[in-house]
Automatic annotation (TrEMBL):
Membrane topology listed for this record: Multi-pass membrane protein
Name of the protein this chain belongs to: Amino acid/amide ABC transporter membrane protein 1, HAAT family
Transmembrane segments: 6-28, 60-83, 95-115, 135-158, 186-209, 263-282
Example of a GO biological process term: amino acid transport
Length: 290
């Protein structure tokens, strides 16, 4: 029973990473109704920026803040330069664009930083933590940071006028324009927020694996499964889904399918959710009269 509890808590720790990536996917989907397949590569690229700053002697938390801010700007610029001109393009064209962004960021990281693996420091490694047998200090810190981030975003979306405008644009762009809301600015803000959230996820993933251009591929797949499970149009649901996937992956991978087949859990979950509950556990079905 003790071993089961340890695996459960470890799944919560891993799920906190998936939850943050799923949150970034949900924020972009809510704003644009498209899935950003390049979200993981953007997070990876941001992590390399932090690594460069840390190697240059910048303190970790200063590098963290600079990276998050730079990633916010990167996301906003991508929306303005790449996504906005294709706003009325067919869905298939947008899928190709996102795949192109994925390949571009992956190639740029390899070209600029190389394909060798690097150690990445954890900001929580030296903090006092009394239960290392249950969770590592990094996992505990990741869980706390995830809940803090979710609370911050909840306050932003539901307690600020800017957040209310973003929610209005996500629900009905035409009506938002009629009441004077700048849809373009809100979409830029949504992409900026997703870029910043993705950067946080990359900074939390890197200490658990080695920093290299492929480090986010597995995490994004699990996060995508979590976002679909919780409801990709519902950021809070996507976070819950990310935690559920992390717990399921750890328990099923340990006691049922084995570690070699853990990735298949995410793939199977995606298929099952798309077949039986395409709106997710907390998604909202939208009915359009024609």
């Amino acid at each position: 029973m003790e071993a089961f509890g340890q695996q459960l808590l470890a799944g919560v720790g891993t799920g906190s990473i998936y939850a943050i990536v799923a949150l970034a996917l949900a924020v972009i989907y809510q704003a644009t109704h498209h899935v950003n397949f390049a979200q993981g590569e953007m997070a990876m690229f941001s992590t390399y920026l932090a690594w460069v700053l840390i190697q240059a002697g910048v303190p970790y938390w200063a590098a963290f803040l600079v990276t998050v801010a730079a990633s916010f700007v990167m996301g906003a610029v991508l929306e303005l330069v790449v996504i906005r001109p294709l706003r009325d393009a067919p869905d298939l064209s947008m899928v190709v664009v996102f795949i192109g962004l994925l390949v571009t960021f992956h190639g740029m990281a390899g070209w600029l930083f190389g394909y060798d693996s690097h150690d990445f420091p954890s900001p929580f490694a030296n903090l006092p933590w009394g239960f290392p047998q249950l969770l590592s200090a990094h996992q505990a810190g990741s869980i706390a940071l995830t809940f803090f981030l979710v609370a911050l975003l909840f306050a932003f979306f539901y307690r600020t006028s800017l957040g209310l405008k973003m929610r209005a644009v996500a629900q009905n762009r035409v009506s938002s324009q009629l009441v004077g809301i700048s849809v373009g600015k809100m979409l830029m803000l949504g992409w900026g927020l997703a870029g910043a959230i993705g950067a946080v996820s990359g900074l939390l993933v890197a200490p658990m694996v080695f920093l290299d251009p492929s480090m986010m591929m597995g995490a994004v797949l699990y996060a995508f499964a979590g976002a679909l499970l919780g409801g990709i149009g519902n950021p809070a649901g996507a976070v819950v889904g990310g935690f559920l996937v992390g717990i399921s992956e750890n328990l099923l991978g340990t006691y049922v399918v084995g570690t070699d087949l853990k990735l298949s859990i995410a793939l199977l979950l995606i298929v099952v959710v798309l077949i039986f509950a395409p709106d997710g556990l907390f998604g909202r079905r939208v009915v359009t009269r024609v």
